[in-house]
Amino acid sequence: MNDVQREYFRRKLLKWRGELIKEAEETLEHLQQGGLQEPDLADRASAEMDRALELRTRDRARKLISKIDSALKRVEDGSYGYCEVSHEPISLRRLEARPIATMTLEAQERHERMERTHRTD
Q1: d(CA 18, CA 65)
Q2: Which of 22, 25, 60, 119 has the least C-beta neighbours within 10 A?
Q3: Residues 69 and 87 in one domain
Q4: What keywords were assigned to this record (predicted)?
Q5: pLDDT tens, residue by residue, 56-84
């Protein structure tokens, strides 16, 4: 990966991170504004379900921000774009589709197959 490509992905990750943080701030404002003051029990239950869904979505976004931060650290230390298992370059198409990828497609597929076969349900 050359410097231009690395900078492209750094900017892409920063933009994505910024969008997630903005959405999180909007959610926080929304949750602070609205109290559960619905007079109807069904309306109150519906509002509570919406609130729980928003919180779950924000939790997923928080975890995604953490992965983006890790990817940004890899950009800085020069290891971004290389598989953490095989140390081979991750394809640009894969990074374009999933900028936080840490494994090549082949390594990810092997990892997922191993998870399925060794899963303890």
Answers
A1: 9
A2: 119
A3: no
A4: Cytoplasm, Metal-binding, Zinc, Zinc-finger
A5: 888 999 999 999 999 999 999 999 999 99
**pLDDT tens by residue, 12-57:** 999 999 999 998 888 877 777 765 566 778 877 887 888 888 888 8
Q: Structure pTM?
A: 0.80
Question: Do 60 and 104 share a structural domain?
Answer: no
CATH at residue 47: 1.20.120.910
In this structure, the answer to whether residues 66 and 24 fall within a common structural domain is yes
